[in-house]
Amino acid sequence: MQTTYIETQQISFQDFKNQILEDYKLGRISREMSYLGRREVLTGKAKFGIFGDGKELPQLAMAKVFKNGDFRSGYYRDQTFALAADALTVESFFAQLYADTSVEREPASAGRQMNGHFATRSLNEDGSWKDLTAQKNISSDISPTAGQMPRLLGLAQASKIYKSVKFDGSEKFSKDGNEIAFGTIGDASTAEGHFWETLNAACALQVPMIVSIWDDGYGISVPTMKQRAKADIAEMLSGFQRKEGEFQGCEIIQVKAWDYPALLDAYARAEQFARVESIPVVVHVIEVTQPQGHSTSGSHERYKNEERLAWEAQFDGLVKFREWISNYSIEIEGKEEVLATNEELNAIDEEAKKTVKAGQKQAWENYQKTITDLISSVLPLVENLKGQNIEIENYINQFNKLVSKAKKDVFHLVRKSLLATRGTNSAERNQLMQKYNEIFEVEKDNYSSHLYSQSQWKAENVKEIKPIYSESSEDVDGRVVVRNNFDKIFEKYPETLVFGEDAGNIGDVNQGLEGMQEKYGDVRVADTGIREATILGQGIGMAMRGLRPIAEIQYLDYILYCLQGMSDDLATVQYRTKGGQKSPVIIRTRGHRLEGVWHSGSPMAGILNLSKGILVLVPRNLTKAAGFYNTMLQSDEPAVIVECLNGYRLKEKQPDNLGEFTVPVGKIEVTKEGKDVTLVTYGSTWRIVMEAAEELEKLGISAEVIDVQSLIPFDLTHEIAESVKKTNRLVVIDEDVEGGTSAFILQQILEKQKAFRFLDSDPLTIAANDHRPAYASDGDYFSKPSSDDMVEKIYAMFNETNPQKYPAIF
């Protein structure tokens, strides 16, 4: 077990002195970064700034108990902590401020995130895991207030899981579960539901988590008393305080942001509780100042009175730290020892300014060189075209007049020049075109790569293994297929675990996990409280630490509680770190064709549009669902798998190769061949489409039925277009609202696959009504597409073209 800060503090006075002065120096460097960063924004060299000034001391104290293997899930003001944890340099701070797209110079996000959003790189260049126990880890920050909290729960719970779960390679992720997850949040953001849901779950689960609340008394301009029921969050949390002998609740520590010795003591105690006893801790840091206000977007003088501003100047953490250092003295062997004189502290202040200025200058030069190199490679080629179009010289003159040039200006010049010389076939234009293609590929990688995995473990690379059937293959309920497949999964992958509402003791509400908790234990097959956002968060955090979690959301309707985390966090992990981090969590849910307003929603279009970056898999039966689980556990990408709730009691033939067979992502399946019309659908609606297709056959219409299986990715080999080429008619059938998933599918087929070229009739979409379905089978019939609806609308296509052969029904 790692030692804690308390156990390592037997040091000499000289070491103590050096430590104090190093902290002061780092605090001053961080403050100067904030000051200079603001100036860089206000002078137009950067777009926006949000800085951590005023929080230097608590972050220095927190960093002292942050060890290799630990994780932080924080918010965007923790620059001092990032400096102290060696996750940030002065140069990388300014590189991020300027949006430098170099991973080497800005490793947190390669210029994709605004300043103050920190991250360490968990992955090697090939997408494989680094040894996370050999480094201090920061999970990539996000801006949505309190959005970092659900992930924090999973990062902390992973430590508890690693105390009992071991697998080949697990030593890269944990040393016997001895790691702490550190969270940081602004005081006003504790009004968000994600904060309370996360803390509640952490107190119930008893995970090693330390949450620091930076309390400056405001949420931007709104004072704390208008944010919550109580102005003092520690008082409000008093009911969460654990009782001796109980394994519930948390420890609450309140400390002033300017009291350096008290801060060291507070975080030392917090570490002891979390690392040694696995108790969650809240450190409420009060009397925080914000010397420059909330951000460069406004001034805090607009909402703080003179008395408050004067207090902030007096109780600035670095001012009070300097006072404490100046006043500190101790007698050792009859000699008075001091920490530093005012002259020595002044020298540190000056050195900090020089260090920051030098780092800023180097970061700016590096950033500018990227642009000047681009200009020097392009401008001569544009100038070579001056004789081919009179407008080119005007474009060049306009470009040269720009005081500050960005990449977009260079590309604008090139594209306008190519537009002006369209139709010209010359060596000079061909040279410029070649250069444009070359630089476009570079910037495409800089700004658009890694939305999905680019590693060898990308889901598309998982080979298809078909289900094997024999004479002894049994016909069983669909839920038995998925249950028995999970049994093989848990046996095969010890790093895999599942958790959700009713997932453990009763084996989920549809018995798809029946007996799994009894067989594999309540660590790997676990029940949770009713708290969807943090069920997802558990999955995100665990997956970031090398586990393979399956986060179960009981019904598809309830996934709306998770949508913020899916959209803002999970879907963007690889993108916002440019391949530096990943979180291959599988979200298991069930839905489609249900009954009643609250159990029959089909928010697929919302998931598709808001969660690009997550694979969306929609199997038509439980065998297909099992195959998708087998596929995704070989992949390093996140996915949502929507099981058909009305399929658990339907009979399916159980494959002999459970746990082995896979369903490829991005591949459709033709489930009925036909020659007159292509019917495209997915999920539970597929069964009704098949019924309709049989009815159409009786009416002389041969329908080809396609199950898309995978919405993201969608039909990678464009097989649907080949079907449309054969039938010349297209119908997309969906239980989502009009303009929902059907619109997405239609756009993919007509625009991406160019299938419009083969159509003899207008494409048709058959979707649900825009309202939620009413209760019972009649509610489904009148709210969502029925077989009757499908037959009549498809028949009408043929009536329109050949009314004699297909006379009107109505």
Automatic annotation (TrEMBL):
One of its GO terms (molecular function) is oxidoreductase activity, acting on the aldehyde or oxo group of donors, disulfide as acceptor. CDD domains: TPP_E1_PDC_ADC_BCADC. InterPro entries: DH_E1, THDP-binding, Transketo_C/PFOR_II, Transketolase-like_Pyr-bd, Transketolase_C. It comes from the Bacteria. Signal peptide: none annotated. The keyword Oxidoreductase applies. Pfam families: E1_dh, Transket_pyr, Transketolase_C. Its cofactor is thiamine diphosphate. Residues 476-650 form the Transketolase-like pyrimidine-binding domain. The keyword Disulfide bond does not apply. Keywords: Oxidoreductase, Thiamine pyrophosphate. E1 component of the 2-oxoglutarate dehydrogenase (OGDH) complex which catalyzes the decarboxylation of 2-oxoglutarate, the first step in the conversion of 2-oxoglutarate to succinyl-CoA and CO(2). This is Transketolase. It comes from Chryseobacterium formosense.
